[in-house]
Amino acid sequence: MKRISLLIGALLLTASVFGQSLLENSYYQKSLELRAQAQEAFDAGDYDAAADLAAQAQEFAQLSDEFVDTMLAKDQADSAMSAAQIRMTWAMGAGIPETYPTDWNLATARMELATSAYGREEWLDAASYADLVLYTLADLSERLPLPKYYAVRLIPDRRDCLWRIAEYPFVYGDPWKWRMLYDANKAVLVNPNDPDLILPGQILEIPSLRGETRAGTWDPTKPYVDLPKP
User: Fold this and answer.
1) Which of 70, 131, 147, 181 has the least CB density, counted as fewest CB within 10 Å?
2) Could you give the CA distance from residue 63 to residue 81 in angstroms, rounded to a whole number?
3) What are the φ and ψ backbone dihedral angles of 199, each rounded to 5 degrees?
4) Which tens digit of pLDDT belongs to each residue from 59-106?
5) Greatest C-alpha distance within the chain
6) Euclidean distance between CA atoms 176 and 188, whole angstroms
7) Cβ pair 114, 160 in contact under 8 A
8) Are 131 and 80 spatial neighbours (Cβ–Cβ below 8 Å)?
């Protein structure tokens, strides 16, 4: 009798601990019905029936716990997957596949793992992989491809010349590459035979150095990708 009483008491304690979080599923509702029946049988002195009903009630309470854990895990996966997809969509629009190909490929692979795990209803794994997608893309910011054109500037203290322009990190980062600029723009210079004579406002083309993608005219307010290392 003491064992039956303790079992029913344990069920009451379980109900009070989980409270409203379990009230929405059929397993918990069934455990409440069986618990009530066990209490009635106990009060009527039918202790064998009370013990059997209390055991059944405990089994359904356990099923309810497992159901709730699953639903919480699914909610976590849904939230993580949604956040990861939003970030992936942003990355596509921001040109991340071109500007950060290594990070993008890693994020894509992890998103595929997350999607696959979600399809198998492995909620915790799906959430973990989705979180890794967010981690991979977290510190990336939109950056433009290296500029294809440069407008010569009027800089009193350090006059623009092909040597200095070639040294800019968004050009070649190496003043000795000035000859590439000269060869590409010789036809538009004021004096094609004088590489030192360039005028403010003149648009110079920046040829690709190592096969890097270049587009647009340099804008000092915009961040650019790094020039690939040799």
Assistant:
1) 70
2) 26
3) -110, 145
4) 888 888 888 888 889 999 999 999 999 999 999 988 888 878 899 999
5) 114
6) 21
7) no
8) yes
Given a contact cutoff of 8 angstroms between Cβ atoms, the answer to whether 41 and 8 are in contact is no
Local structure of 160: helix, strand or coil: coil
Q: Which is nearest to 87 in space by CA: 145, 143, 139, 144?
A: 139
| Cα gap 108→130, rounded to integer Å | 10
Neighbour count for residue 81 (Cβ, 10 Å) = 22
Paired with 150 in beta bridges are 204
8 Å CB contact between 143 and 168? no
pLDDT tens digits, one per residue of 115-162:
999 999 999 999 999 999 999 999 888 888 899 999 999 988 888 999
Contact (CB, 8 A) for 80 and 130: yes
Neighbours of 134 (CB within 10 A): 16
Global pTM value: 0.58
> What is the C-alpha separation between 75 and 50, in angstroms, rounded?
37
